[in-house]
Amino acid sequence: xxxxxxxxxxxxxxxxxxxxxxxxxxxxxxxxxxxxxxxxxxxxxxxxxxxxxxxxxxxxxxxxxxxxxxxxxxxxxxxxxxxxxxxxxxxxxxxxxxxxxxxxxxxxxxxxxxxxxxxxxxxxxxxxxxxxxxxxxxxxxxxxxxxxxxxxxxxxxxxxxxxxxxxxxxxxxxxxxxxxxxxxxxxxxxxxxxxxxxxxxxxxxxxxxxxxxxxxxxxxxxxxxxxxxxxxxxxxxxxx
Length: 240
What we know:
By secondary structure, this protein is an alpha/beta fold. It is 33% helix and 22% strand. The protein has a single domain, classed as Rossmann fold.
């Protein structure tokens, strides 16, 4: 596997930021690209060091994996500060896909994440369905308004008061339901995960909507042991 660990100046963030790119040793033709988003207590390097996703990159031979630094932003534009949503959804793909051989087409672009990153992946894909063919969430923060209301997470640096509707996955899914173009969605949560009830609630909504949608659950908690298995599952499911 070839590994790029880059620092670059982001215009939307207004600062230097980091991104890891995993590539197959031998590149023939255009690659599919998977953006992997980390969780609230993690960082952009953890997908490389805490999972075996690099083996999937090697085995595939046609996949690039991109792991950006999302800080503690919930992949949102933070009030009066860094615009992480704009960076991850727009600036980053434009930057990365000029560096490596990808088609730049929707059908070759995927996004996934864990916990906070699962929320970010679903939000970005549903707000930009023309750009992402599929998205996956592992132990995702699927009910961000509820978590905010019970003070599970400190989002005071992100939102000024209530979370807007267009940051809520339930609102986004219902709003997108009648659209002609929608991303395929994969969702997993462990039975022992503290996010399990939130994920079941989102699953129940998605099962009433017209998405290509797969929900899976199994024994598991909010740990990397299970997320490692899930990234391999997604690569298999999406045929990456």
